[in-house]
Amino acid sequence: MYTKKIEEDLNCGIRVAMKVFGGKWKLCILEAINNGIVRPVEIHKNIPNSTLRVIEMQLAELLFFGVIDKCSEDVYPKKSEYEITPFGRTILPILSQIDVWGVTHSALVKEKQQELEV
């Protein structure tokens, strides 16, 4: 088992939040599940810049921390669906505020992104 040389400081609220919700696509995944997109393949289609492998890795981490639950039907082919737990729902108001901030500042970010691409 890999042991980090420098211990993580999980006494800092921001670091705790980044540990659970940081990572590529986690907030987008939660938004998708909250909007009723609950199967991994559907989530992947909803986030076109992602890969299914990364989506599955992020789902596994969210599952590990208890942010989501996995429901599997005993059919062939096996169907897995995800739902947000009560613990996971505590982030939704903050996610909503992040969305408002992003929409409010999207023009500036798009402009800066174009400058990078020139």
Task: Describe this structure in a few short sentences.
Helix content is 58%, strand content 10%. It is built from six helices and two strands; from the N terminus they run ααααββαα.
In the CATH hierarchy, what is the superfamily?
Winged helix-like DNA-binding domain superfamily/Winged helix DNA-binding domain
Low-confidence stretches: none
Question: What is the helical fraction, as a range of percent?
Answer: 55-70%
Q: What is the overall pLDDT average?
A: 92
Question: How far is it from the N-terminal to the C-terminal residue, by CA?
Answer: 44 Å
Number of helices: 6
Give the DSSP E fraction (strand runs of 2 or more residues): 5-15%
Write down the Rg. 17 Å
What spatial form do the alpha-carbon principal axes imply? Answer: globular
Number of domains: 1
CATH class: Mainly Alpha
Indicate the CATH architecture.
Answer: Orthogonal Bundle
Structural class: mainly alpha
Biggest sheet: strand arrangement = 1-2
**Would you count the extended β strands for me?**
2
Note the run of SSEs as H and E: HHHHEEHH
Predict the CATH topology: Arc Repressor Mutant, subunit A
